[in-house]
Amino acid sequence: MGEKVRRNERLDEALIRGIREETGLRAEIREHICTFDQIKNSGYFQGGISHIFVDKVVRVYSKKVELNEEAEDFVWLPVKTVLKELDIESNAKHTLKLYAKMQPLRN
User: What is the rounded CA–CA span in Å between residue 76 and residue 82?
Assistant: First the structure.
């Protein structure tokens, strides 16, 4: 999920808004996972555009998803299953590996 930050909007506010708009879920921001910018040949690079990616752990209070027109589908999976079984973009894979390392520290 990606969200553009509006003028005078904090990053966490943009993330919470985006989650609600795209999935209908109420969310709470938890830990920071990582931050990176676009890198040529990373899969996200677009010349002349600047992107900064900030990945965070988010807690949702329901699993009842109502997708808007921007999304095609969703699935709830454990992070280890995603890393083993899905072919995902390299930056997303890196973020999920960092998240998996955080798991023993989380309650």
Answer: 10
